[in-house]
Specification:
Blueprint lengths: L1 H34 L3 H12 L2 E20 L4 E20 L4 E5 L4 E6 L4 E14 L8 H20 L3 H22 L3 E4 L2 E3 L2 H5 L4
Parallel strand pairs: 4-6
Antiparallel strand pairs: 1-2, 2-5, 3-4, 6-7
């Protein structure tokens, strides 16, 4: 009788051990399957993480002189008006990287950037009139202040184009785009823009972004 009990116990524990081993093997297989993530999904997640607004900001301050003349009877009677204007302006150059468009070729392991947004330039001038010199026949009216505002904006945009602000903004853009290069290279993929393989940040700098 005792032998039968021993045999029963041995068979029971053997069965229990086999059950535990089988369950552990299935769990490990499922867990490993769950941990497998396609490379394309990793790349898309990284592209999503970089899709943000990149902003370069600068402050400018300058004094301008606004002049306007009004003539009567040809140039026989000429009346001038002049205003000295102090301008403080915040200038923003931004890239909305959420507008980046791309295609993924899993078979060839290529990420093709199809659209990189252009920079958006915004100027917010604060205008203060320091001095006004006008005549009876040529006075400042509301529309003159609108003209001053538009002229100042145009002057500041010209100033921005001749400054390093755009260059610095592009450098920041390239720095963000370089993150795409890091992830694709680390996975053995190729990054392409305008049919040109991008192998380094220098390649980005050479492109008309």
């Amino acid at each position: 009788m005792k032998k039968l009990v021993y045999i029963f116990l041995i068979l029971f524990f053997m069965g229990l051990g086999a059950f535990i081993l089988d369950t552990y093997t299935k769990y490990t297989t499922i867990k490993n399957q769950e941990q497998f993530v396609p490379e394309s999904a990793i790349i898309q997640e990284q592209l999503k993480n970089v899709s943000k607004l990149v902003v370069n900001e600068a402050k400018y301050s300058q004094v301008y002189t606004y002049k306007s003349s009004k003539s009567y009877l040809g140039d026989l009677f000429k009346f001038d008006k002049k205003a000295v204007v102090l301008v403080n302006a915040d200038v923003l150059i931004s890239y909305d990287l959420s507008q980046i468009e791309y295609e993924i070729d899993e078979e060839k392991k290529i990420v093709k950037l199809t659209n990189i947004p252009k920079e958006e330039v915004k100027c917010f001038p604060e205008i203060k009139i320091l001095d006004v010199n006008e005549s009876t026949f040529n006075t400042f009216v509301g529309n003159d202040y609108n003209k001053v505002n538009e002229k100042i904006k145009a002057e500041f945009l010209k100033k921005i184009n001749n400054s390093n602000l755009k260059i610095n903004a592009k450098d920041r853009l390239v720095s963000e785009l370089a993150k795409f290069l890091v992830i694709t290279n680390s996975l053995g993929w190729t990054l392409v823009y305008e049919n040109q393989p991008i192998n380094s940040t220098t390649d980005f700098n050479a492109l008309p972004l």
